Structure formats: structure tokens, C-alpha cells
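Continued from yesterday's entry.
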Amino acid sequence: MFATVCATCHGADRTGNGPAAENLNPKPRNYTDPAWQASVTDDDLKKTILLGGQGVGKSPMMPGQPQLKEQPEVLDGLVKIIRGFAKK
């Protein structure tokens, strides 16, 4: 799911420079930023994924994925993927 839905904006290198990001303002989140990684909880990430940017007071350009509420294994997998992008 990350490769087909999220990477379009967040990029294959996870820095927020995917092919659809060029025209977005603000730019998508850079998942490799250690300060950002430390500033959010897994529950924050899940909420953002489910509700989208607008649902959590961020960019309305990020669509929510409410169907994942019924697929917790996919939601947990996305959080694990995002956490795996942290640069140390």
C-alpha cells in the first residue's frame, strides 16, 4: 500500500519528493527526519493515516484512509514502514 498510495507524494526515498509532490503546498512529510520521527507517536501516525491531513489539523491535500480502521494489520504495517525510514 505504501508503494501505491503513499509514495506518490512522500516519494520512493521517503523524503517528501514523490512525483505528485511537485505541485503540493505544503510539501509532504519527510519521513527520514529524525526530529519529526521523535515528535510523533505511533497513535499519531495511525490517526493521520485514517483521518487524513485535514482530520488532524494538517494539510487537507493528504487523503485519509478510513477503510484501514477495519484492517489493523495493514495500518500497523504502514506505521512500521514509516518508522523504518528514520535516519539514525
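--- second protein ---
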Amino acid sequence: MEEINVAEHTLVPKHVLLNEEEKNDVLKKYGVSLKQLPRIVLTDPAIIKMNPQVGDVVKIVRKSKTAEETVFYRVVVRG
């Protein structure tokens, strides 16, 4: 049976793991702490192959009918 890569499915938005500098830039830009960001679990199928660590930040880029694309940020937490 062939393994399905959920992250590459057309209905799954693009997920990008930010490096430390990008993560700090996002927190500073929006004036928030990691605790204030929405969460995504470590075992989420869309990010599991990125080998994220607890406390990492994931940038999610979704297609939008009104704005072309919208960006969301999630902090990685244990499930």
C-alpha cells in the first residue's frame, strides 16, 4: 500500500517551519509571546515530516478569495 503524504495534498495549505530569527521577527512584529499564538500539535500530519520541536513556529499560507493568500502562525505544542 502506498504511503500518502498529507502535507502535499491540494487541500492542505502550505506549512513552513520558521527558523529562530524568523520566529523572533514574527513575535516582535505582532507584539505577542509564544503563549499567545494559536497552537498546532507536534503530531499534526501536515507538519510531522518537518521534524518540528515544541516551541517552534509554523507559518501557514492559505489561499483566499479576497486577499489571494492569508498567513497564519501557530506554535508547536505536545499533543
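The mean pLDDT is 93. The domain at 6-77 is CATH 3.90.940.20 (Eukaryotic RPB6 RNA polymerase subunit). Will compare against the first tomorrow.
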